[in-house]
Design goal:
It contains nine helices and eleven strands. The strands form two sheets. It has a six-stranded mixed sheet. Strands 8-7-11-10-9 form a five-stranded antiparallel sheet, sandwiched between helices. By secondary structure, it is an alpha/beta fold.
C-alpha cells in the first residue's frame, strides 16, 4: 500500500472499492459508467464481492471491487484483516437517499469501515460519499431536500467523518444523470493522481487560444475527463452531444469501419466539433475525444493549438503515475 495518497500503486493498478448497504445502487452505478444498460434487466444483489479489471483511465488499469451490501457480507469484510481493504486507493461509499429508515445503518457501516482501516494500520484512502438516487425529476422536491439535510447532519456529526484527519467529500448522484456521475467518478480518481490537473490547465489554454466557448475531453468510455467553458449553454451542448458522438465512433471501430477524425455539426449560433485523438500508451493507443463549441467553422486556430494540447495529453498518459 502506498504511504501517501498522491503516490501511484506499485502495480500501476488503481484499486477502487464501491461500498454501501444492499440495494443502495452500487452495481447499477458501475453498469451506468460502463454504459452496460442491458444488464439492468438481470440485476441481482451482489453475492460477496465482484472484481472488474477491464476498466482503464488514461491507459491506467483500474480494478473496481463491487462489495455486496447485505449484513453477512459487511461483517465478513470487516473480519478479513485487510484482504478487502488492502492497497485501496479510493472508496466510493453509496447511500440510498430515498431509504431514510436506513440512514443510521449506512453511517454506522461507514464508521466501522473507517475504524477498521485505522485498527489494522492501513493508510486512509480517499473516501467519496455518493448520496445516490437523487434522480433529476425529484431532486428539487421538498421531501428529497429535507432528507438530504437530515443525512448531511448525520454525516457531519459522525465521529469518523468529523473528528478525524480524513477528508470526505459528498456528491448527489443518479444513474439517470450519467454526465454528473461521470464527473464525480473521474474527479475521485484524479484526486489520487495530482498530475491530472494538466488536463484542466490544457483545456483552459486550448479554449482561450482557439477562441472557443466550451471544450470537453472524453475517453473511449465517454467519461468526462475535463471541461472548460465560458458559456453554460455551450458547455451543456458539448456534454450532451459529445458522449453520443464518441459512442458512435467507438461502434464504428468495433465493426472495423474507419471513423472520421473530425466530426462537425452546425448549431443555431455556431459549430460543434469533435476530434478523435489517438495517444500512444503503455501497451496500446488510447483514444480520446476533444469536443468544443466555436462560433466559427474555420479550424485554423484549432489546428494551430491542437498539437500542444495533444502533446500535453501524451505526456500525461506517459507520466500520470
Amino acid at each position: 500500500m502506498t504511504k501517501e495518497r498522491t503516490e501511484s500503486p506499485k502495480s500501476e493498478i488503481l484499486k477502487i472499492l464501491i461500498m454501501g448497504l444492499d440495494n443502495s445502487g452500487k452495481t447499477s452505478i458501475i453498469y451506468t459508467l460502463e454504459q452496460n444498460f442491458a444488464s439492468f434487466y438481470s440485476l441481482k444483489p451482489t453475492v460477496s464481492f465482484q472484481i472488474r479489471e477491464d476498466f482503464k483511465i488514461l491507459g491506467l488499469p483500474v480494478k473496481i471491487w463491487d462489495l455486496g451490501g447485505q449484513k453477512q457480507y459487511r461483517d465478513e469484510y470487516l473480519s478479513k484483516k485487510g484482504f478487502i481493504f488492502g492497497e485501496t486507493n479510493l472508496i466510493f461509499f453509496v447511500i440510498d437517499t430515498q431509504d431514510s429508515k436506513r440512514y443510521g445503518d449506512a453511517i454506522e457501516y461507514l464508521e466501522k469501515s473507517l475504524e477498521f482501516l485505522t485498527k489494522i494500520g492501513l493508510p486512509p484512502p480517499i473516501v467519496i460519499l455518493l448520496l445516490h438516487k437523487v434522480d433529476p425529476e425529484i431532486k428539487n422536491s421538498k421531501k428529497v431536500r429535507d432528507n438530504l439535510k437530515i443525512l448531511q447532519n448525520l454525516i457531519s456529526s459522525s465521529y469518523y467523518t468529523s473528528n478525524r484527519a480524513l477528508k470526505i467529500e459528498s456528491f448527489e448522484t443518479s444513474i439517470y444523470d450519467r454526465e454528473n456521475l461521470s464527473r464525480v467518478f473521474v474527479s475521485g480518481i484524479f484526486k489520487v493522481f495530482p498530475k491530472t490537473q494538466v488536463i484542466q490547465e490544457s483545456l483552459n489554454d486550448f479554449m482561450k487560444n482557439a477562441d472557443a466557448d466550451a471544450a470537453l475531453l472524453l475517453d473511449e468510455n465517454a467519461l468526462i475527463l475535463g471541461e472548460a467553458f465560458s458559456d453554460d449553454v455551450k458547455r451543456n451542448v458539448c456534454s450532451i452531444c459529445g458522449p453520443y458522438f464518441a459512442n458512435m465512433i467507438e461502434k464504428l471501430l468495433k465493426f472495423t469501419i474507419t471513423p472520421p477524425k473530425v466530426f462537425e455539426a452546425q448549431m443555431e449560433d455556431g459549430w460543434l466539433f469533435q476530434i478523435l485523438l489517438e495517444i500512444p500508451g503503455r501497451a496500446e493507443k488510447n483514444r480520446f475525444y476533444l469536443v468544443f463549441f466555436s462560433r466559427e467553422r474555420s479550424l485554423d486556430k484549432i489546428n494551430k493549438y491542437l498539437p500542444q494540447f495533444t502533446q500535453d495529453l501524451s505526456n500525461l498518459v506517459k507520466f500520470v503515475v
